[in-house]
Write a structure and sequence with these properties.
254 residues; alpha/beta; Rossmann fold; 2 domains; 10 helices; binds S-adenosylmethionine
């Protein structure tokens, strides 16, 4: 049984936004009853207008959601993107806005930052659970209006396995990859979300395919996020690297 089948929900599907209501994944989750608490390890809630995930047996891992409206995101949005490590790795130029494929979207932080810089971003996520959290965050950004809605309009979400995308039909300037890392890479609030995702999602099992498929779909570059001391993805040396204090971005030029 996969970990994702041990999730309950503590809301009725009628309570959540129309766009999420029809998701077969959400409708199939068992409701959180006393009996379900015995065999479920995680619970998806709908509180204060947002979907969030709690580990039922670990009180430290609660309230994990995707959220583009946090003060931390607002601080990042105020910094010029070209000066941020990710902006440098993407080779951002003011004049030209890229078409980017975020092939491992996760909770969408990086995708939202790239869209905020003016790029058209397609974000693919294969986990239906993570995808539901991501879609919910995008809906809230759209409803907030103003600059959040403008950024959201540049972000297209797709629930799929990136490796199933047909490279002949889907070409982008840049493919961005941020595969699951071993534990211990991230700090502070991001750590809680990553710990929970690491418990729930399978570890990256085909890094070679991720990178080679990325190179097939990218016209200009593939950017891979790595931990500062992690080996290059699939042991393949990048063309260049942008190094930060906790992460680095490896850049491959096809
Ligand atoms: C480390 S997280 C990405 C975090 C993301 N960059 C962010 O800013 O929130 C990795 C995500 O990639 C997804 N993933 C891994 N392999 C994938 C694939 N082949 N296709 C689509 N999604 C994939 C996982 O389900 C997981 O949610």
């Amino acid at each position: 049984m996969s970990a994702e089948s041990l999730i309950a929900r503590n809301f009725a599907c009628a309570e959540i936004p129309q766009q999420l209501r029809s998701k077969p994944f959400l409708a199939a989750l068992p409701e959180l009853t006393v009996a379900a608490e015995e065999y479920c390890d995680y619970c998806l809630s709908y509180t204060n207008g947002a979907l969030s995930l709690d580990a039922l047996k670990d009180k430290a891992l609660t309230g994990v959601c995707s959220n583009f409206l946090t003060p931390a995101m607002q601080r990042r949005l105020r910094q010029p993107f070209k000066q941020q490590l990710l902006g440098k790795a993407l080779g951002m130029k003011a004049q030209r806005k890229q078409r980017i494929l975020d092939a491992t979207a996760g909770l969408g932080t990086d995708a939202f930052l790239m869209a905020a810089s003016g790029c058209e971003v397609t974000a693919i996520e294969r986990s239906p659970l993570v995808f539901a959290l991501l879609e919910d965050a995008l809906l809230r950004a759209q409803l907030t209006g103003g600059s959040f809605a403008v950024i959201a309009s540049r972000l297209t979400l797709q629930q799929d396995d990136f490796l199933c995308l047909d490279a002949r039909q889907h070409q982008f300037d840049t493919v961005y990859l941020d595969p699951m890392f071993p534990t211990g890479r991230r700090k502070a609030s991001a750590k809680k979300a990553m710990t929970l995702l690491q418990q729930l999602l399978p570890a990256e099992d085909c890094p070679e395919q991720l990178l080679s498929h990325g190179l097939e779909c990218a016209n200009k570059r593939v950017v891979v996020k790595r931990g500062r001391r992690s080996p290059p993805l699939a042991a393949r040396e990048p063309s260049l690297q942008c190094r930060g204090s906790t992460n680095r971005f490896d850049v491959y030029l096809p």
